Amino acid sequence: MNAMHEIDYKIHGDDLQFVEVELDPQEAVVAEAGGMMFMDDGIAMETIFGDGSSQNAGFMGALLGAGKRLLTGESLFMTVFQNRDAGKRRLAFGAPYPGKIVPVHLAELGGELLAQKDSFLCAAKGVSLGIAFQKRFGAGLFGGEGFILQRLQGDGWAFMHAGGTLYERTLAPGETLRVDTGCVVAFQPSVQFDIQFVGSVKTALFGGEGLFFATLRGPGRVWLQSLPFSRLAGRIVAAAPKTGRGGREEGSVLGGLGRLLDGDNR
Q1: How confident is the model at residue 214, as a pLDDT?
Q2: Dihedral (CA of 98, 191, 72, 33) sign
Q3: Element (H, E) at 122
Q4: What is the mean pLDDT of residues 188-215?
Q5: Of 43, 201, 235, 253, which is the most buried if we count CB atoms within 10 A?
Q6: Overall number of domains in the chain
Q7: Is the pLDDT reported for residue 134 higher than 50?
Q8: Smallest Cα–Cα separation from 214: which of 186, 233, 190, 235?
Q9: Under a CB-based contact definition with an 8 Å cutoff, are residues 85 and 58 in contact?
Q10: Which domain holds residue 189?
């Protein structure tokens, strides 16, 4: 395995954060397309085909990495930012919505982490982004996030994003935590992940929390988010005023009066 790039970083902001990465000469980071905020002169940007890991050699390796990303619903391409200058250079990546950026050093976690597919922000070049299928059929069928998780492997820094407020917890062996499926950000492979029915038909139908929740059983560390993007998007869509054929807000108090004044009372 090739050595990971040992990058330095600093996280700025409170609710709308960005991570500033300092690169020594020839060091590089890999990120999803569209996540870059700014970069110093001397940093070269290259779009690559595959998962961004230096372990995949040749066309077939790149094709395999790209296929893994396609299964997780991500783009076939990633972007590598490399410092080709003689001195230190900086670049930054911004969070996609309000929340917290989570730095994790994979070497301290046993070299591997499982994460929801939308949580990855960037990582030191050499970190491999693969896929991990849910071990239990029910977890993939009813989990709300699909059958597939992202698998981050390596011994360098990786950065994830958690919506809202971040909650980190270390579970003891056999300790179980029940969580809304969308609130799971990441967990160590030693943690058992499953989906359970809420237990009561009445609670499932009228409780407002859905039919299923995730169970995380230790040992291992887990990272949770208080505001999944799917929940945020659902609230925005539900609160958005509906527009009629003329583009007016039908849900507003003046909507009906406006149509009468305009002679549009169809």
Answers
A1: 84
A2: positive
A3: strand 120-124
A4: 70
A5: 43
A6: 1
A7: yes
A8: 186
A9: no
A10: 8-243
Instruction: Measure the CA–CA gap between 38 and 43, rounded to whole angstroms.
Output: 10
The pLDDT of residue 15? 85
- Residue 237, pLDDT above cutoff 70: yes
Burial class (CB in 10 A: 0-12, 13-18, 19+), 174: exposed
3-class DSSP state of 110: coil
254 Cβ neighbours under 8 A, 6+ residues apart: none
What is the residue type of 265?
N
Does the residue 262 lie in any domain? no
- DSSP letter, residue 261: H
List Cβ neighbours of 187 (8 Å cut-off, separation of 6 or more).
Answer: 113, 114, 193, 216, 220, 221, 222, 223
Buried b (16+ CB within 10 A) or exposed e, 227-248: bbbebbeeeeeeeeeeeeeeeb
- Look at residue 265 and tell me if it is in a domain: no
Nearest to 149 by CA among 214, 103, 105, 197: 214
Neighbours of 129 (CB within 10 A): 26
The rounded distance, in Å, linking the Cα atoms of 82 and 45 is 7
Task: State in Å, rounded, how far the first CA of the chain is from the last one.
Answer: 70
Is residue 73 in a domain?
yes
Query: In this structure, is residue 255 part of a structural domain?
Result: no
The tokens 């300092």 sit on which residue?
22
105: Cβ–Cβ under 8 A, 6 or more apart, which residues? Answer: 155, 156, 157
CATH code of 198's domain? 3.60.160.10
Strands 18-23 and 89-94: antiparallel
